[in-house]
């Protein structure tokens, strides 16, 4: 239980748990509510990650209200969807609606979900800059204790940081042994922006990788635990998603072993594959196709 309260200190002094429960694609009320209660009250998780587009904030909020763990011991993250990243006011309104759905007075972390706000690239840039002003307003109001971005790559940070008064506290990105995000990690470390890894198991693809399977045997762990431990040793926070009790427990058993430097190097070597299993943030056209024709991600 103590290990699950391990945290990273953000540059604003706030503590962010290293391990959290992801909720992407979890919309069954009974299943998700039970998962949150098991994760927090039984296993010891202290962070929960959701988003407006996941369409489960009300379920998450109700489960939080029924926990025996006090709210001030929890770290709740949500994200502003691209179609609400249109202006300062639209972001503030989106956050207020998220808080209402969650039944909370504040978020520990609020993120701009993707580095796109319009199909037109120039308009998108203008809207993201305006949207960040809304994030800074929410921070000043105390409605968000920390603010950040998600899926922002090196080129996005280079483009937008000069326009931000408050730099992001966190950048949540797809990262796994098949997509190691080395250059992004270096930049975020330099800028004191904490990385949170999502899809740390590579949408299940990494669990079948022969090298990872071999390491799981060597360490007497599961491939999932190897991937999650790899991320922790990279300095990332992780938010593995599961609604199954056995996997929630399994994903938390990553604090009592350590990968050797040689094995870390071997896993990092898989990064040459450079495989995005989610929409590629580098490709504006792909994001347009993904997010401005439907709302499935």
Structure description:
This protein is α/β, with parallel strands linked by helices. It is 41% helix and 12% strand. It has helices spanning 29-43, 57-65, 88-102, 121-141, 154-160, 182-191, 210-219, 223-233, 245-252, 261-269, 284-291, and strands spanning 7-9, 15-17, 21-22, 47-49, 75-80, 109-112, 147-150, 170-174, 194-198, 237-238. The chain has an eight-stranded parallel β-sheet, covered by helices on one side. Strands 1-2 form a two-stranded antiparallel ribbon. Helix 1 (29-43) links the parallel strand 3 and strand 4 (47-49). Helix 7 packs across helix 8 (223-233). It starts with 6 loop residues before the first strand and ends in a 6-residue tail after the last helix.
In short:
With 297 residues, this protein is of the alpha/beta class.
Number of helices: 11
> What percent of residues adopt helix (DSSP H or I)?
40-55%
SSE succession: EEEHEHEHEHEHEHEHHEHHH
Report low-confidence residues grouped into runs of 5 or more. Answer: none
Main structural class: alpha/beta
Query: Radius of gyration in whole Å, from Cα?
Result: 18 Å
Using the alpha-carbon principal axes, give the shape.
globular
Q: Largest sheet at a glance?
A: 8 strands, parallel
């Amino acid at each position: 239980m103590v290990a699950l309260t391990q945290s990273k200190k953000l540059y604003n002094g706030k503590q962010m748990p290293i391990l959290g429960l992801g909720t992407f694609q979890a919309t069954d009320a009974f299943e998700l509510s039970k998962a949150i209660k098991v994760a927090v009250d039984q296993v010891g998780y202290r962070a929960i990650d959701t988003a407006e587009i996941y369409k489960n904030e009300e379920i998450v909020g109700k489960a939080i209200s029924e926990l025996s763990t006090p709210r001030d011991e929890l770290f709740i993250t949500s994200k502003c969807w691209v179609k609400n990243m249109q202006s300062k006011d639209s972001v503030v309104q989106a956050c207020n609606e998220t808080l209402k759905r969650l039944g909370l007075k504040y978020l520990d972390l609020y993120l701009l979900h993707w580095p796109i706000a319009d199909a037109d690239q120039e308009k998108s840039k203008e809207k993201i800059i305006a949207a960040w002003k809304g994030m800074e307003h929410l921070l000043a109001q105390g409605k968000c204790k920390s603010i950040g971005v998600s899926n922002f790559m090196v080129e996005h940070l280079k483009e937008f940081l000069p326009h931000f008064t408050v730099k992001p506290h966190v950048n949540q990105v797809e990262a796994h042994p098949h997509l190691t995000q080395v250059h992004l990690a270096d930049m975020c470390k330099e800028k004191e922006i904490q990385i949170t890894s999502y899809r740390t198991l590579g949408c299940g693809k990494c669990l079948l990788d022969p090298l990872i399977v071999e390491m799981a045997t060597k360490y007497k762990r599961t491939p999932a635990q190897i991937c999650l431990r790899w991320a922790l040793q990279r300095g990332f926070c992780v938010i593995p998603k599961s609604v199954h009790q056995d996997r929630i427990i399994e994903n938390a058993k990553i604090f009592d072993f350590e990968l050797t430097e040689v094995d870390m190097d071997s896993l990092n070597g898989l990064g040459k594959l450079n495989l995005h299993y989610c929409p590629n943030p580098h490709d504006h056209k792909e994001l347009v196709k993904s997010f401005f024709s439907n709302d499935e991600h």
